[in-house]
Specification:
By secondary structure, the protein is an alpha/beta fold. It has eleven helices and nine strands.
Length: 272
Amino acid sequence: MRQYLENVREKSPLVHNITNYVTVNDVANVILAIGASPIMSDDEEDAPDITAICGGLNINIGTLNKRTIPGMFLAGKRANALGHVVLLDPVGAGASKLRTETANNLLREVKFDVVRGNISEVKTLYYGSGSTKGVDADVADKVTDENLDSALSFVKDLANRLNTIVAVTGAIDLVADKDKCYVIRNGRAEMGSITGTGCQLSGLMTAFLVANPEDKLGAAAAAVCTMGAAGEIAWERMQPGDGNSTYRNRIIDAIYNMDGETLEKYAKYEVR
């Protein structure tokens, strides 16, 4: 995991984000904290030109609206034409017709290197429809030790079907292509009390992918470990009276101070 992180800090990739306006500032700060550079642009007349000067594109549908949808498709196609990394975060897919149709249409028209979401969102993409409860995974769809084997098969099958890497995040994180899956057990349940840790991870992951083009699966897994480790380190530093706002800032600080040795120490994963 060390080398993936060190490559990000050495190469300082430029990441274009068409992302959730609830969390856009935190996404930018996390990308800066890891040593990369963020650009935010969603207008259809601006986004294709901006993505052309970046190494990676992070598309997040968390606050989807008809004004920004055309920019997502135009930027995605421009990134594909230039051979740039593209990531899809299908926030809330299954919760509404617009989100579900937009996510499915993006997958049809844009080639994604990684699709990152919770298990409910990813199942929606697999089946073409779903019933997620807002942006949080349905309780019935949690990945657990009891259903881990079936979840592994499902994620690998989806990765094969979409010809991409699929990253499913939750209590147990799965990052898979059609042949191999990283099972990651980093993070804290308290991270769920902060709006946008998933959005932050998508921006972070895009930076890791751009900096490690020779092993995108490992890079995606390293990004998940980094975010989870930061959540653990930040929680260790919480003081009496601290709340979720302080926890958010401590997570960003932990990413800012993360080095290869610390990541190796905290990363908890197996490959199956």
